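MODEL INPUT / OUTPUT PAIR
PAIR INDEX: 1
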Amino acid sequence: MSNDTPWFKSTKSGGNGGSCVEVRRHNGKIEVRNTKDREGGTLVFTRDEWAAFVASTQDGEFDL
């Protein structure tokens, strides 16, 4: 897989002035970066780690 795998923003990120993250699948991992600081680093997760994170958000684990 090349380094040109496209990044995606959440469909819910439209009205907040661009404060969101971008996500892509790349080389068998999930990568996440800040849209306001794309050169500031990338978090890398395995598919299992990402699935656990998504499930936790859907269950409300991180709700304030």
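PAIR INDEX: 2
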Amino acid sequence: MTIWETMVLALGGPAILIAAMAFLAKSLLTQWFARELKAYEATLTSDVKAFEIKLKAQADSSAEQLKSELQRQASDHQIRFSRLHEKRAEVIAKAYQLLVEALWDMESFVSPVQFEGDKSLPEKYTVAYNKLADLYRYLDVHQLFLPASLCAALQEILNEMRGTVIQVGTYTRLDNDGLPDHVLQQKWEIQMKAWDKLKTSIPDARKALETELRALLGPVS
């Protein structure tokens, strides 16, 4: 019998052997769990880092897409605004041209001084009235491009001009020969009132209109 066998028998035989094996097994399991835990923690840390990197990449991509979309929308808005401004400037220029031409023809018609060789007053009336009609139709079609206040100002001056032209035109169709003196006097007074209006109230309205048009167009460099 060896010395180890003697010691085992002296200390309790198989019982101590089982206890030793149990201790050894526990120690081995503890070391295995520690290694597995360490490996799991390393894997978990690696997964978390990978997830963080993936999440950051997704966030960066989403932010870049959002930035790109906002830039696209801003560019589209700027293009639409520029086109609208160009169209509005075109409408303003055309409306003002028609207004000025109508004023010229109206002035020629209601002027108390008519030159030999000019068109007849009925012809001038037709020209002036048609020019006002052209302006009215143009504004009616393009009023969506202009502010409501500007449309109202244009409509006001247009009504003033149209009423004046029609009033003078009513008397123009009457032949002076054979007219009573009081009718001739009324005809002359109406024409002079129209001429005065053309030189006072209508220019004031035109000036206010020009101010609003310039403000709408913005500074001209």
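PAIR 2 NOTE: The two ends are 119 Å apart (CA to CA).
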